[in-house]
Amino acid sequence: MRRFVPIVLTATVLLAGCQGGGGGDTTTSNAAFDPATCQGGTLTVLNQGGITHLDPARLYTSGGGNLPSLLFRTLTTRNRQPGDAGTKPAPDLATDLGTPSDGAKTWTYHLRDGIQFEDGTPITAADVKYGIERSFAPELPGGAPYLRDWLAGAADYQGPYKQPDGITSIETPDDKTIVFKLSKPEGDFPFLATATQFAPVPKAKDNGVDYEKHPISSGPYQVESYEPKKSLVLVRNTHWSTKIDELRYACPDRIEVTSGLDSAVINQRIVTGAGQDANAVTTDAVVGPEQLAQLGTGSELDKRVTRGEFPSTTYLAFNTKKAPFDNPKVREALSYAINRTSVVNALGGSAVVGPSTTFLPPQKALGYQQYDWFPAGDTGAPDKAKQVLAEAGLSNLSIELAHENDDSEGIGPKVASAIQEAFKQAGVTVKLNAIDTGTYRDITGKPATQPGLSLATWGADWPSGGPFLIPIFDGRQIITAGGNFNLAQYNDPEVNAEIDAINALTDPAAAAARWGALDAKLGKLALVLPLTHEKDVYLYGKNVKNAYADGWRGQLDVGRVSVK
Amino acid sequence: MIRALLRDRGFVVGAVIATGMVLVAVTAPLLAALAGQDYTTYHDTLLDSARGGVPIGAFGGVSGEHWLGVEPGTGRDLFARVVYGARVSLGVAVGATILEVLLGVGVGIAAGLGGRWADAGLSRVIDLVLSIPSLVLAISLLAIVPQDWPRPLILAVVIALLGWGGTARISRGETLSLRTRDYVAAAQVAGAPWWRVARREILPGLTAPILTYAALLLPTNMVAEAGLSFLGVGVRPPTPSWGQMLSTATTWFRADPAYVIIPGLLLFLTLLSFVLVANGLRRVLDPRQREILR
């Protein structure tokens, strides 16, 4: 996936009583929570980033997003459970996770009964197909790129406005059935079907780029007002009920989202909890040092926090086509020299990030296997690094490190300075190259302009090893025109073949083991230098009940919290 | 004159602090070496990572080794960063002030001594410079300057380019009043070229007001540097500056108050000292003020 977009986070919740350990020590202050009687009140959402485009075709979410998932039901969705159980998809509009045939190249779904749009029109398979076709329109960019790659014969499709005949590899034999024909086996299809591109869109109500002003809801709420990046007010959709949707509880009567706030302000407001802020949650402002100091075990604030982990890795990307990083010894030496403790501190401390020696983050669902081929210890092994460089006949190495010019995405000057200092201990001089955050991806994502060494992050589109490893290491995914994520520019036919073989597996557990093994094998080549993985610590307001981190996204689910 | 200055208690206090700060800035490497620290080394063991990276220990981790404690999030020695930060803060401010005075006095005298058209043209230029929203322009200028150019120098030049209007206007006004004096007229009648008139007759008369004004410009420029660094377009890391330290401190002010207090207090003291000095100079050098005082 792309660098992860903070607004579209997701989370899940289960009954407080059934809470497992999972994503962390979730706290329960609401033993008496009952989804049948939780309705009422207004939930306030305080966020840093706002939703730029509220169009299901344009949203780039993991598991359907936290707020978007209140409006857009999809064929499948995340199952909203804590811990490892939460990393699995669950049927949403469909009756099951889909039936694979033809070696996972064909996926068939049946829609459940009684589902309706906010205007009472029944949702049909044609609406789902139309929603997907819209996401191919160049007028509506922004969504995940998988469908174009996976659907047979869809690579050049230009959307229903220019090509109203639609995509032939999506078939709707009747109103309740939808069949997808893929160009290659994809065992992860039920995970992809959680994306908002799989939300139904009524063709009669589609007004192109203006659709986002009032998208037609299939979920528990509908839009009352929406101002891009600033505010969103949701009220109940009377044509939705818990009879046709068991996953969303939709407790609050009204949800008011305010965006564009400062992270410190959001957390301070939730801590204080004055007035409406007592009913407040945030889906993108992780706690800062101010709150961490007050989060001691047993403290009042400690009861109002969810701890989870979104699978995400921050790493140093080597461009192996550029000297000196074409030399494996240089990459190994730097892997020995890295001081992960100072990187962790630069990113907010051990409460919100953890050190990583593997590219896959430590989630079982992704197939995580522990390895540390170039042991740097907690604070780096500069002597070992010097030795490796000396053996390779390199001394007084001087390199340049590209990073974003602000710290908002966690790959800015703070982390870069920490790395500069660590490499200095190993006798390597680092010159910092700050690139404007707005153009950073354009420059690093184009092999012609990509720097030799750059900071990067990668998050999971869904909890599986595939979307984590394929864009980074599949040699056929090197995109020269721009938007490239295989920053090592690594292309090994053997690895590509293994990727294809794992993709054909429909058993997630079997696939996970092979993804983990592949990651460990690739790790030996030091193509990337993993730094940290993300931990999510979010505060919520005094009156908020049934808030806990789900296993998919690592944060609370707005669809399940209550403020009554 | 010196005696008059020394009688002004404010001036003496200000001068002592200001001299101290300048000394600190000049001897920064020596002071850091004396403390046995440098401003780039990370000390991870001195931070409480679980609490977001706040320094372990009282008042920001003050100890025999780290006299002012360490920086939260990195563990870099604060004493070393503060003394090196003084270099940037004072260096940029002094550099910018010198440039402003050179440019301002030059343009001011040229406008004052030049003909009607030169005066009109230059005065409009001065008006233009004075009316530019300097902060906005400075931010945009600094954002497009290539990164490998020496940052403190660029900062000084940008601040000076946007701030010489006041000096120029004062110089022009003084020049216009001085040129009506008999001795200036005599020099002109005697056939002295304009540049000699400017240097020998006008410039000495300008010294007092410009010196006073420059002493007031210095703290203004220091605030400008701090502001620009605070906004993230100042010096690049790992080079420290007080404004930059204040900027990072905003996220720490509850968790580690010492980190805000130290650079804040230093900035305050330095600014105060320069204002006191400027005030003292004005009182002594400005004849009208002197008369009022008597």
UniProtKB/TrEMBL annotation, chain A:
Q: Where is this region: Disordered?
A: 79-99
Q: Which Pfam families match?
A: SBP_bac_5 (PF00496)
Q: Which GO terms describe its molecular function?
A: peptide transmembrane transporter activity
Q: Name one GO biological process term.
A: peptide transport
Q: For the Solute-binding protein family domain, which residue ranges apply?
A: 88-476
Q: What is one GO cellular-component annotation here?
A: periplasmic space
- Can you tell which superkingdom this protein's organism belongs to? Bacteria
InterPro entries tied to this protein: Peptide/Ni-bd, SBP_5, SBP_5_dom
| The protein's name | ABC transporter substrate-binding protein
Q: Which organism is it from?
A: Actinoplanes cyaneus
